[in-house]
Amino acid sequence: MARPKIALIGAGQIGGTLAHLAAIKELGDVVLFDIAEGTPQGKALDIAESGPSEGFDGCFKGTNTYEDIAGADVCIVTAGVPRKPGMSRDDLLGINLKVMKSVGEGIAKYAPNAFVICITNPLDAMVWALQQFSGLPAEKVVGMAGVLDSARFRHFLSVEFGVSMRDVTAFVLGGHGDTMVPLARYSTVAGIPLPDLVSMGWTTQDKLDAIIQRTRDGGAEIVGLLKTGSAFYAPATSAIEMAEAYLNDQKRLLPCAAWVDGAFGLDGMYVGVPTIIGAGGIEKVIDIKLNDAEQAMFDKSVDAVKGLVAACKAIDPTLA
Ligand code: APR
Question: Where does substrate bind (predicted)?
């Protein structure tokens, strides 16, 4: 059987890292697309030349024309601009919305059967716009945010508890922004929920609150350190986890920015929720029960996402 084809739209920091990870994991043949001439070609060649030492096979192509993504099984979108210190993800909206229009049209024309993972920020609004511009089925267009936010939460928790990250599970819902909702009750160390670990005296509520806030600020912390751009290793790894779930029909239960219509009392919008990813794309949205405090945080996050979508519609009336 032919190798799957993975198209990476945007060959910047995240795009290059995605290509390298896809190569090392032998997920398929990789096409790197970017408007910058030379960048995708250079990265594709550089990665191909790492194959003999690393020991992987695959074709790696850099391109500036959408035709080359034809028939892609998976498209991962990072085209656009990242934030700089002092900027919020929402500050990127105007520029990146235009980028989503051209990317959506390119995917619709050349890769209409792909599973599309959007990473471009502000995530929840951009994945919505990408689905609108591309016209692909909503279950095939998804945003990468919850896997990354949960990974950050898991990392901080593993350091706090002094246990392997493998034994820490964490749940982060809502929009990929300051209003994201890290759910302590549904986050565990080897199955023991975080509130129980506080009761057991393994940590304190204050420390847990600080970790939750650090998770919310996780992207900004990296932007502040890097100064010239935003995080790229962990965002790329998170999207590859989602791509693998689709390509290998793994039925992974992962938090993603998915189209939610009915669940969580929502009537049609993109926001971070638990989903099952398999060969059908987003096969299910898991409608978990929230307590009053969690629901209030989730509602606030939903409102923030709705505000961003309204801002998109104001900029581009064709989206209304
Ligand atoms: N079509 C294709 N590629 C584009 C377009 C476009 N219309 N506009 C910009 N690009 C390319 C740029 O040339 C650049 O190579 O997108 C790439 C973005 O790469 P970086 O600037 O390195 O940004 P990166 O760190 O990869 O982040 C990309 O993901 O997490 C989000 O906030 C982040 O929105 C940002 C995106």
Answer: 83, 89, 121, 152
